[in-house]
């Protein structure tokens, strides 16, 4: 007798899979149109967020890589291009006869002192040279463009930089052997006479028919020739003009006020300084010659000095060497007491390395 199941209409809740098939059970099926399970929704959101972050990071990396490869050189690359990596000492051409600006002692260590010397030390330090690794060589006015100075044996040798009251002009900028940095001092042309000179000189035109001494191949000689038919004597050294003025060989001497102020201060009242009201500003800059990488590094040093409020080296140089000259030259704009504005040169740096402000220079 065959037994019937107790309930022939009952269905197994989970019927066994057909023979040979072993599909795992994934839980109860979701009804169409019902919201996704909470766990699945969170997983999808996390995946989408991670993908978005990955895309953004990839874009940043690619963009930074392109900029890094195609951007301006780094400071280290500039040092290599400038030839500084294997260079033990830095040669700088400077004036040797201008009190307060660049003067070489005549005895003892024959050290160089003055405002230009401190600016040269400032730049050398940023190039990686200690003061004892800097050689100063006396350079005359006409040799500044050629970058040839006299060594201790009286021979002409090439220098790496010229920091020697060298004013920026259009003609000099067009000279391929001259590579000017951003300016480091503003001054103007002026006139010095003996104290017994009758009257006050307020223009170069008043030097008509006078015997006037100035520096040869200088901006002062050019302006003097344009303004008057004075009897002009051009010297290689401004100290020769001062000596001739004191001896009565000349009625006056003229050049940049910052240069003349030192002679007036040292004269003990024998000289008088005259402001001739020229609008033209004399802008002193460093000559790096045809070494463009070195010029960029000089610009970087001057920019850091200008933009960093903690860097007071320029201000200290002015206070130590130019400030003491001012009392002897009243009513003469000897030199502006602020460093000329300097913009950041094209040097590649990461954003977190750009700690100094970038601002427009005021129009002059």
UniProtKB/TrEMBL annotation:
Entry's transmembrane regions: 49-69
GO biological process terms held by the UniProt record: amino acid transport
Keywords: Membrane, Signal, Transmembrane, Transmembrane helix, Transport
Family matches, as SUPFAM superfamilies: Periplasmic binding protein-like II (SSF53850)
InterPro entries for the chain: Bact_solute-bind_prot3 (IPR051455), Solute-binding_3/MltF_N (IPR001638)
Region (Disordered) location: 1-41
Database matches in Gene3D superfamilies: Periplasmic binding protein-like II
Pfam families per record: SBP_bac_3
Start and end residues of each Solute-binding protein family 3/N-terminal domain: 89-325
Domain of life: Bacteria
Record GO cellular component, one term: outer membrane-bounded periplasmic space
Family to which the UniProt record says this protein belongs: Belongs to the bacterial solute-binding protein 3 family.
Protein name: Glutamate transport system substrate-binding protein
Organism of this sequence: Streptosporangium canum
């Amino acid at each position: 007798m065959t037994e019937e199941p107790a309930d022939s209409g009952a269905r197994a809740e989970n019927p066994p899979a057909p023979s040979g098939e072993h599909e795992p059970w994934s839980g109860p099926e979701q009804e169409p149109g019902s919201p996704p399970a909470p766990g699945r929704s969170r997983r999808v959101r996390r995946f989408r967020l991670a993908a978005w972050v990955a895309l953004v990071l990839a874009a940043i990396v690619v963009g930074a890589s392109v900029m890094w490869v195609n951007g301006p050189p780094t400071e280290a690359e500039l040092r290599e291009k400038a030839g500084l990596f294997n260079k033990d000492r830095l040669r700088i051409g400077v004036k040797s006869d201008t009190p307060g600006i660049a003067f070489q002692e005549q005895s003892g260590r024959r050290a160089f002192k003055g405002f230009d010397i401190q600016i040269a030390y400032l730049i050398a330090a940023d190039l990686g040279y200690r003061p004892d690794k800097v050689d100063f060589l006396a350079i005359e006015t006409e040799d500044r463009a050629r970058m040839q100075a006299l060594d201790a044996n009286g021979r002409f040798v090439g220098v790496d930089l010229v920091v020697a009251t060298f004013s920026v002009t259009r003609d000099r900028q067009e000279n391929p052997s001259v590579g000017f940095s951003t300016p480091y001092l503003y001054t103007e042309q002026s006139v010095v006479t003996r104290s017994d000179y009758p009257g006050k000189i307020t223009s170069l035109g008043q030097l008509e028919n006078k015997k006037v001494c100035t520096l040869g191949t200088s901006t002062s000689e050019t302006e003097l020739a344009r303004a008057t038919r004075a009897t002009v004597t051009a010297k290689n050294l401004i100290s020769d003009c001062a000596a001739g003025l004191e001896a009565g060989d000349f009625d006056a001497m003229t050049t940049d006020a910052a240069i003349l102020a030192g002679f007036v201060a040292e004269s003990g009242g024998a000289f008088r300084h005259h402001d001739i009201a020229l609008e033209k500003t004399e802008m002193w800059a460093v000559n790096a010659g045809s070494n463009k990488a070195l010029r960029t590094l000089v610009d970087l040093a001057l920019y850091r000095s200008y933009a960093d409020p903690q860097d007071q080296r320029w201000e200290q140089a002015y206070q130590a060497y130019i400030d003491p000259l001012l009392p002897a030259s009243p009513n003469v704009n000897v030199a502006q007491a602020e460093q000329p504005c300097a913009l950041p040169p094209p040097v590649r740096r990461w954003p977190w390395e750009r700690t100094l402000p970038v601002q427009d220079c005021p129009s002059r």
